[in-house]
Design brief:
single chain, about 200 residues, alpha+beta, hypothetical protein PF0899 fold, 4-stranded mixed β-sheet, 5 helices, 4 strands
């Protein structure tokens, strides 16, 4: 075999390996993206299941005083877990692609009365992302019910605040997360502590 053939064979093999590595990396990236979408829910369910099992075992073993101590610790752990999960969810939402972000904010803005004109406050960071949404919403609103995008310092984390001369509707990411957190907290507490209240 000539030296040139050997060189060509090596180059061909190297190209094939590079294409294979690139293809595998692309498949791996797609799998990782799909897994990331499920990871937040799975992580919460895993931690919740473990905390629930721990609570059940501890509750069967301990007297009322020990139950109280355990429940307080679970409450601290649950709150820390919820803090972490909601912070992560807020970051993911704020950093999601512009189109997806606009659709989420559009859903929140359904709470704005269709006949009310006003300012839509947003962060400087979100002004460019939300401008197409406001333009689109204004197409279906009467001239005296138009929305005006006002970039500024609030809401800092994301979302919007709708403001008129007489009222304000807080549609900020912080507000949404706080509401969701409040709803979830009571449900988790009910599940975690239902055995103690029945005893």
């Amino acid at each position: 075999m000539s030296l040139e053939r050997i060189r060509q064979a090596i180059l061909t093999k190297a190209r094939q390996e590079a294409e294979k590595i690139e293809s595998e990396a692309r498949v791996r990236r797609e799998e990782e993206l799909a897994a990331a979408g499920r990871s937040l829910q799975e992580e919460f369910e895993h931690h919740y299941q473990r905390a629930s099992e721990d609570a059940q075992r501890e509750g069967e073993r301990q007297v009322v005083h020990r139950r109280y101590e355990r429940n307080m610790e679970l409450l601290r752990q649950r709150n820390a877990l919820l803090d972490e999960l909601f912070q992560r969810a807020a970051r993911r939402l704020a950093d999601c692609p512009d189109g997806r972000y606009r659709e989420v904010v559009r859903g929140w803005m359904r709470e704005i009365p269709p006949d009310a004109a006003g300012e839509v406050l947003c962060s400087e960071r979100d002004a460019e992302r939300l401008a197409p949404l406001i333009e689109d919403l204004n197409r279906s609103r009467e001239a005296d019910a138009r929305l005006r995008l006002v970039p500024g310092e609030r809401p800092a984390a994301g979302g919007v605040i709708f403001r008129t001369q007489s009222f304000e509707v807080d549609l900020s990411l912080d507000s949404r997360m706080a509401r969701s957190r409040e709803e979830l907290t009571s449900k988790v507490a009910e599940i975690l502590f239902q055995k103690d209240t029945a005893a």
